[in-house]
Structure formats: C-alpha cells, structure tokens
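Tokens help. Consider this.
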Amino acid sequence: MTDVIEKNGNDISLLNGEFHNYVQAKGLLERIPFRDMATTDFMRNYEYPINSWPFFVSPELVASMQEMNANILRMTYKAVRAVFSEDPMKMAAAMNMDPVRCSFFFNGVEFTDICFRTDAILTDDGLKLVEVNVGTAIGGWQIQWMDEAFRQFDGYREFFDRNAVTCRNTPVTFFKFLIESAAKVARGARVHILVKVRAGFDAGVYGSFLQQYIAAAVRESAIDCDIGFYASFDELEVTHEGTFHRGRRVHLATFGDLSKESGPPLELLRSIFAGKIACPDFPTYELLSDKRHMALLHHAAQHGLLSEHEAALVRRYVPKTFILGGPLFSQAVRDELLENKDAYVVKQCNGMQGMDVHVGRFVSDHDWREIIANLRQPELWIAQAYCESKKFYGHSGQSRDVFNFVWGVFQFGERFGGSWIRMMPEKGKEYDGVINSARGAEERIVFEAAR
C-alpha cells in the first residue's frame, strides 16, 4: 500500500515511486560518492550537501512553474506603478527608498535583459511563490554537473537507461541569455562578456568548471563571442566610448554577489544607463527583488489595478502578504498577526540566505509578540501567509527520510531555465521552518519526465 508521502511523490511524477522501488530492490543504501566522481576542483569542493536521490517532475508541474515565472515580474512592475501612480517620490517615501532609484525604475524596465529565480513552496493548493531573486547572484544552477553524475553512477545507470528523462541545462540557458543581451550592445561586433567571480574565488578554477557550458551556449546562440572572468571593478576602464578590460571593449558585465564588497563605480553605472554596456545586475532591476512587492501585488489585485486574469494569477501563486509599516499598514494587520501566529512568517524585505526570517509556528507566543513589537524600521518588513510544503522522501543515511522542499525556478529573459530543490528533514532538531542552503539544507537536482 502506498503511504501518503509516496503518494505526494507519485502525484508529481510516477517515476519517483518507481525510483524508490528500484533502489530498494537493488539495495542501494549508501550516498553517491559525488566528490570522488567529480571532474573539476569546483565540483570536488562544492560547499553545500547534495542529496543522493534525483527527483522527477511531470509536464503539469513544469507548466505551472513556467506560468508563474512568465508573469510575475511584469505583474509586479504594473502593480508598483499603479499603486504609486508612477510617482517616484511617493514610492520613495512609502517604501523608504532612494528616490533616484525609484525614478530610474519608473523610466522603464527591459524584461528580456533580466534574469531571476523565484523561490516557491509546493503546497496542497499548488505552487506558492515566497520570494523573487533578481540578478546573476542567484545560486543553484551550479549543480548542473549532477545530471551527468546521476546518469554515470553505476547503481542508477540502469534506471536512467530505462527511463527517458531530461534535465534542463540551466548554465547553458544562462550563458545564452548573457550572449543575446550583450549582442544588443555590440551591434554586429564580436561580443565580449565579463562574468564577475565572488571575492576569494579563483577565476581560473571557476572558469574551467564552466567552459563546457560556455562552449555549448556559444555554439547554440550562433553569435561570435567570448566570455571571460574578472574579480574586481579595478580591472575595468570606463571611458565615454564604453567599458574596457585589458584594452578590449566589454559589451556586458555581471556583478554577481556584492554583499561583502563595495558596489560598482558611478562611472560604470552611468555607462550602463547610457546603453554602452549591458548588465543584468543593474541596480534598477534589483528593486524587483523587494519582498514587499508581493504585498503590492495583492493590494493591486484587490483594488482593480490589475486585469482579471492577472488578479487570478496573483491569487493562485502569491501568498497573502502585508507590509508591516508605512501607509499600507493598518492596526488590523497587527491584530491579525498577533491572533494567528501559526499562520504567518515575518521577514525582512531584502534579507538573504534565510536570515531575518521568523516562522510563527516555530516561535513561542511571547517571542512572537516581542518580534512584532520590536521590528526596526517596520516599513522594511513583511508578514506573509505561511506556506506548508508537501512532504517528500529523500535519501538519508542508509534509508530515507521525510523532507520539506523549497523549489528554485529559473528565468533568463524570455527563457524558462528549469528548477532545483533545497530540502530540510521534517524532524530535524534544527529545523525552524526556514529552508536554505546556507542554513544546512540539502540540494537536489530535478529531472523532467513524461509522466
């Protein structure tokens, strides 16, 4: 008899149940030796734990992911413009933002030049989007190498030989996106792209890991280009003609994760704004990552500022969200939070890696009231309806365990980029409702199946 957890997996794809039966029949109890199988230093030294079981999804879930990602940023932009009547000063005052950035934001956004990852929980009521992460610092696509590792692992090879499944090549999609964005600036010239590596990373090691994906992206895009790496803004020279690196004109540069570094120089930002160099990390685009926008989406949907179809998409994919300060906050929201602690999560509007997140059902009544009462700059915090993950099995020790999932779903301009999973054990002593790699979550690759 199939238990409830197995049924959850089978509802996503019948191959999940078949894979569990396969590993039990074969007696495959141990972890896959990923690091022993690795072919590059980057893979051998990957910093996060990897779960030893693949996960399979059907076309129906993929279609839902695509619908969610294809609409979320455009609806967000429309909602923000409508709520603040396209007035940057009004937005700046209400959201405690720089009015200059708000002005740039209202001047227009080119969605084909934006890459992002939505984080979503698969609940009994479908996918629920809990945040949007915009820019090239979005993580997760680096585990693409697991596709080959799973297929080559002796114990799993027979299963993959019997079942035709695909794994979207997220890195190739990412680099094709960069190439096509840079080509708009190059205007027929040979495209030159620079990818910034994080402080402390070895650009050579990182580059060698990515070369196979870069080569495939260049080949598939059929655009004459090369892609290199840089570690510091000091390496760039910005002139009235454009941006240069070692004497060569650069058509696109990424910034990656600057949380521990100084921001880009003003002259580089001016060059981006003037259209002389492309950058998917332009600060204007980052405004779309603000978690408060989910509250603005609900406000816009409730007050007729979106079309009926858009409002229905908001209700389908975006959990109820409130801003905890400013003109859109009310005492009724505070009362709701205090009376229904277990139904909400409170988090900072631009927090990262699971920091500044408080899940009501994992907090005592006293601590919850203290959290609500002592929020610093409450206009920078949101309360969001708690989204309970459907439970799924994953490999654990020499058996299996029940896990909660958060799905990372990629989008590169107009292209859907696939998905991955972070997962925390249901009964883990340290589980506090937050699922994040930096907090100990295991990562899991996703294969798309026909059933």
Observations:
- The chain has 17 helices and 17 strands.
